[in-house]
Amino acid sequence: MFKEKQILSKENDFDEAIVNKLRVIVRQYGVTVDYGGEITNHDDEYVKIQEKYFKKNTCEFLVR
Fold first, then answer.
1. Cα-Cα-Cα-Cα dihedral of 3, 58, 15, 1, to 10°?
2. Domain 7-63 has what CATH class?
3. pLDDT digits over 41-63, tens only?
4. CA-to-CA distance for 6 and 57, rounded, in angstroms?
5. CA proximity to 34, closest of 57, 10, 52, 14
6. Domain boundaries, the chain
């Protein structure tokens, strides 16, 4: 189970977040860029939250 403000980093973390419909915050270079929502999809490079795409290698994804 994930805790609030836990960073999603592994592929499995993103899969579990989708299944459990976790809401996430997206941070880039230490600044919150999106108060996010549920992750709807992800691949090796991007995470899709609703209709927005965020690069995994430049963003952090924190559980709300």
1. -10
2. mainly beta
3. 999 999 999 999 999 999 999 99
4. 17
5. 52
6. 7-63
10-18 average pLDDT score: 96
Q: Give me the residues paired with residue 44 across strands.
A: none
Q: 8, 63, 62, 43: which is closest to 53 by C-alpha?
A: 43
DSSP class of 7: E
Rounded to 5 degrees, φ, ψ at 58 are -120, -5
Q: State the pLDDT at residue 1.
A: 78
Structure tokens at 50: 């609703």
The predicted model scores a pTM of 0.91
Helix, strand, or coil (residue 12):
helix
Alpha carbon distance 24, 3 (integer Å): 11
